[in-house]
Amino acid sequence: MARVYNFSAGPSMLPEEVLKTAQAELLEYGSSGQSVLEMSHRSPVFDAIFQETKAAVRRVLNVPEEYEIGFFQGGATQQFAMVPLNFMTTGKADYLVTGNFSNLAAKEAAKFGDVAIAASSEDKNFTYIPSMKDVTVRPDASYVHICHNNTIFGTTFNEVPQVEGVPLIADMSSDIMSRPVDVSQYGCIYFGVQKNIAPAGMAIAIVRKDLLGHAADTVPTMMNYTTLLKKDSMYNTPNCWCIYMTGLVMKYLENTIGGLENMYKINAAKAKVLYDYLDGQDFFHNPVQKEYRSLMNVTFTSPSKEMDKLFCDEAAKNGFVNLKGHRLVGGMRASIYNAMPAKGVDELVAFMKEFVRVNG
Length: 360
What we know:
By secondary structure, the protein is α/β, with parallel strands linked by helices. It has nine helices and 13 strands. It has helices at 16-24, 44-61, 75-87, 100-109, 225-230, 240-257, 260-279, 305-317, 342-359; strands spanning 5-6, 67-72, 92-97, 114-120, 144-147, 149-150, 155-156, 168-171, 188-192, 203-208, 297-300, 320-321, 332-335. The strands form four sheets. The protein has a seven-stranded mixed β-sheet with strand order 2-10-9-8-5-3-4, sandwiched between helices. A two-stranded parallel ribbon has the order 1-12. A two-stranded antiparallel sheet has the order 6-7. Strand 3, helix 4 and strand 4 form a beta-alpha-beta unit. The mean pLDDT is 97.
């Protein structure tokens, strides 16, 4: 079997050692006589898996005790509605629109109250992050919302808004676990797991306890953070396999990588290899302002759409798959999440050099 280098924005690569462990345990987890795919979520065996996974997420991210951690179905997109339903207590919320998903989150929240755009980078096709001095947050806003890393446009926040009395809520789907996070800066962090953590099909939310308990009685049960967290994510049958896989990835980050400080160093080094190459030639072009470049999603274009297509086709033939850029941006996008090995980036750059030699 020849595994390819998968540069998909998500679902994305998982660490090979994690996949091998899951493979070895697929038919029987421990001495339980059953697969995680089969066991009851109420069983003592799965409860042990769940509790250790939750504790590991807390350890790896250094989550303070005043925060709850929940595992929810529906992915990050469902969180777009859960956030205003639970936290828009003043009827107002402010959103920074720095890409497609923050825009979708703002539109979803506008169904439930008065949403203002505190800042936007749409004027330059989301190729930068607005300066925090240009962010205007209403003092009576229930919260301010950001998407920390913009998967489609390849930008990321280097600083985040901090407004006294207004909690910050962040979608971190595409860069969670890629670097250390000061959780205390946020009222809520949520993320789909399909980029850096597990297969698609689940979201995790980290919620400061003082924000819970304020949702209206009309909020549907399965959209109420307080209800779900009081049941320790077991109000109904959770995504047991995703929880199990999350636990394996947390072990990988702790034991193999040595924590998020080391993960960040690895990710920064990988991204530097690719960005240095892009900056050192004039065939490919990265449109993002340098200070806002994502370490996870690297976008670039060639001189023409026809050349973009040729590049993606030739890359796939050589084992570099899912490099086609999003339709809103075009060109190419290399998503180099945690599980992408440094060798994958090195070999991609070598392929790009050869492509330019032949076609440039």
